[in-house]
Protein 1
Amino acid sequence: MREIIIISGKGGTGKTSFTGAFAHLAADKIICDLDVDAPDLHLLLQPVRERQEEFHSGHEAAIDPEKCTSCGLCASLCQFGAIRENGAGLAVDPRRCEGCKVCVAFCPAAAIRFPEKHCGQWYVSSTRFGPLVHAQLFPGAENSGRLVMLLKQQAKELAKARGASLVLGDGAPGIGCPVISSLSGAHLAVAVTEPTPSGRHDLERVADLTRHFQVSLAVIINKYDLNQDETYHIEAFCRDRDYPVVAHLPHDPLVTRAMVQGLVVTEMPETDFSRDLRRAWTRIAALAGLGQ
Amino acid sequence: MIVAVASGKGGTGKTTVTASLAAVWDQPVTGVDLDVEEPNLHLFLHPAMAGCEPAYLPVPVVDEARCTYCGACSELCRFKAISVMGQLLLTFPEMCHGCGGCLAVCPEQAIAPGKRELGEISWGRAGAAGFLSGRLRISEAMSPPLMRLVKARLQQMLAAGGGDAIIDAPPGVSCPAVNAVLDSDVILLVTEPTPFGFYDFQLAWEAFSPLGKPLGAVVNRAGLGNDAIYQFCREKGVPVLAEIPYDRAIAEAYARGLIIAGISGRLQETFISLRDRVRHLANSKAPRQAAHA
């Protein structure tokens, strides 16, 4: 079984739109939305939920005002500035609480509770392209590499159970914890970039990240016609690093038109754009060693 | 006044709006890049850098000569960053959140603060504007500790020099994004009128409106996609403070690294008007919806 993760560094370069198209084109796969913070793949795939589970992670301190003697020890120990005077006494600001338990352990009045946090939901669903494993963190919850790992684990088990040869994942933007978790164990990362100063800069950082974790990388240059100079710089960078550039796609509102209809680009009437995307998928599948 | 420029979905134009707003700001202002995973503001503001220093998180360093392997530290640590097995003590600095619990709990004072490099903080000036940015080290998993250090530096700068700040926040609606806007006086949510933009905008509204801060929307690529976003803003009482049209010329200017407020008189007016409306919004009361959480 192979695992391909679509990433980008910079947001909004087309990751999810292309993941949707690849989900359409790939055979025998489990699809996985690993952007648990702002997941959008479901808007293209219209999943029907078959299984729903709660995701719990970490704990959160809460001061019982009845027991609190306002000694202030907790506030002096908290490294996150989460314990503040709120007019009525000391209280924990849940948005700043790191869940480290230091205040709980040191409170001389045992006045701090430490309940587990319910951070979101995760689902296994069916879609017209096959099973989708996805999640939604509650807005404002701690973004969680743990949830990303859990989704990947579920996807792999499902792939095993159904004899699927591929787990196809839509990653998060950035280079932090959720992206690192999504890359773990992947056979190939595909970075979708654009020829803008931000696109190139962020591609270079996410490429350094894949290199650090020794995951192979292929690159798609989306909107390549916006700035030929930047496209050239990106190509040079890819040549230098031996990253195959599997597609150059033009700036085209077609992608948004498909999105508005709840379709992926390759379901729309055939154009050069969708033909190029099909060719890109063939190359990606070969690079990931699919069908070998 | 601190203005936070946030979004749910990435790539909607946070950095574009931050850079353009900084360019038309007519008071002393500092542009702050808190998207430490992928900082981009410098690519548009082209600051002359005045300094750069590494940022560290305090992590435990154990003096084994004093350690009695009592296990109090590993029992307290929620992040599996310190572990005692028999007569063996192991630390996993990359797991540490820097809570200081092990240092405080050790009865032998055998643990001292060491440091893990989180990345770097740099500062300078971009024309009339100040500039401050965090940059996460490649393979560092945690962005919030570096963001906290950048925010602390901003507070020092504002305390010393005064002026306003415009923060370029990370994308998303989880803890790093919420933390980026916590100390702001007004939040600008940049979105685009597409299904992805709209869905993530709703998440952003759910995440940010409970903070009780004045909140406004900027619709980028207006004319692309559909109208759902406007309907939602009307229902929730979120003012649409500016619209930036969907226009290939704007996309090309952005791709050349230009500040789009400078490419046409019309766009300059758009951002001057946005500046004035943001100021007005910041001085108004938080919207009614903010009370609910």
Note: Residues 24 and 129 of chain A are 6 Å apart (CA to CA).
Protein 2
Amino acid sequence: MTATVGESKVARPTGPGSTGSTRKADRSLVAVPIIVVVGLGLVALYLSTRTLDTIERRTINVENITARLGEHLYLTAVSTAIVIALAIPLGIVLSRPALRRVQPGVLALTGFLQALPPFGVIILLAFSPLGLGATTAIVALVVASFLPVVTNTAVGLAQVDPAMVEAARGMGMSSRQTLWRVELPLAVPVMVAGIRVALVLNVATATLATYIGAGGLGNIIDGALRLGRPTATLVAAALVAALALLIDWLAGVAEYLVRRRSG
Amino acid sequence: MSDDVRPTIARPMIARPTIAHPMIALQGITKTYPGQTRHAVAQLDFDVPDGNIVMLIGPSGCGKTTTLKMMNRLIEPTSGRILLDGEDVTGVDGDQLRRRIGYVIQQVGLFPHFTIADNIAVVPRILGWDRKRIDTRVDELLHLVGLEPRDFRDRHPRQLSGGQQQRVGVARGLAADPAVMLMDEPFGAIDPITRDRLQDEFLEIQRQIAKTICFVTHDLTEAVKLGDRIAVFGPGGVLQQYDTPEQILTHPANDFVAEFVGSGAAVRRLSLLELSRLELEQISVDGVDSPNGHPTYRADAAGRAVAWSHLPGVSEMPPLVTVPLSGTVYDAVDVMLDMRTPLVAVVDHEDRPQGALRWDALVRELPTKGRRP
């Protein structure tokens, strides 16, 4: 065909990942690692000017920090994995024509769960048969971060252009093929954004797991606060902040890549 | 019949088509949507002959799109039978059925996360063709729709213009070489100039592939231009008339069709009448024949007409303007109005004059040579 150069500009808008916001995302993706490195550097610099007493040395050492960081990452990873495994199928099921009518009700319920303060949920769950420990903390984290993943899955699937689905079905794709090859790939950017929110929520909320004996970086903060060691509190708090920023950054990179691929 | 001389018949005319071999047949089809008492389509008997383009037209909500979507069972009929090439497909698996029928929609619906080649290859992949066969087919189809495979195969839909996307949409519909294509206003969302070009290309493609095509449109000009037959739908999904474009324009079956066709019907009809089918007024080269009553022109060495030399009944000599024999009466009228001349010379593909058409002749019955060969 005689395609003029001007004509090709009439291409469809690329949705949420249009040029403007992509460029903004680019900039923040570069900025975050710099902020984290500079921040941690400043904390290290401050530490080097201080002489630590025995109590401080017992918490602020590589071994202890690595162990608590490991617990923190474990809580975050397991809870997020469970959320993904449960919330995405639920979101998909809710977006099917047969169940679309109950979608608002289910989303209201998960919204209610998220509105509960995570600290309260963690403490309350400790009085349940689950008792103290990591399992209880993970259940609480799942409750807290369930909503964004369900919502974004359902919304992501709902915003797929109906023409895509009509074209797919009209060509003879089964409803399952349409879901896997057309609807889900097109919904992935929105779904990944939901998972990113869940991840960040879980990193932050895992700090509270220490109160039911599930460890994590919150353990250092809590201990240092009780013993009146502001330096140790500062270090642990800086670590939690840096971790949250880094995980958000990683998820952001993933989201950016996915969005660029599915244009 | 061969010497049948009637005005404005450009195509074979059958009063109410009785079709020996319908590719698609709808028998007593009714569709009522849940919760509605009115039929969307009521008791429809409809045959689409093999190799024809049938245009479904009518006001919005008349059931033309519903009818189209019942042919591939995207919408299930409430009652009635659907036959595809003689086979009752009312109860077969819908997905399997749709893989045998091409489908093109107005919004094109290309998958943005697929390349152009992958978009075209959707149905062949589902059907399990091998890679080499798919690649060959994709290139063949891109050529057919006028897109250079080397440039377009690996692009994504967003890098294409609306017109190019719709070409890919047509190629995708043709991918598995279905006998039947269903098209739902495929050129509806495209600017008029591109649309006109796409329609011409579409007719050219159809000349090569001769598919059975059902085409929904709301544009009468498009229906007249593309259709071998036109089905006019009215309120309540009732088929009002199903006939050739000529018959629809000249003999509307009822007041509804007459009103739908509108006051422009007489002018529209001109675009259906090809100049090659007219008995043109005889003209000759100046000096060769005795100019006994018919116009003569001066020619150059190659036999091309350059000017009129003698025009009986015309006082002021107009400039000599030509129209190709492959054009329509509409084109001739356009040129006459544009150049303010009372007659045009009709020339063959080598620019040699074949005859003349006068303005006066238009308001008389245009003499034709009977059926198109």
Note: Chain A touches chain B at residues 1-4, 7-12, 14, 161, 163-164, 166-174, 177, 181-182, 185-186, 261-263 (CB under 8 Å).
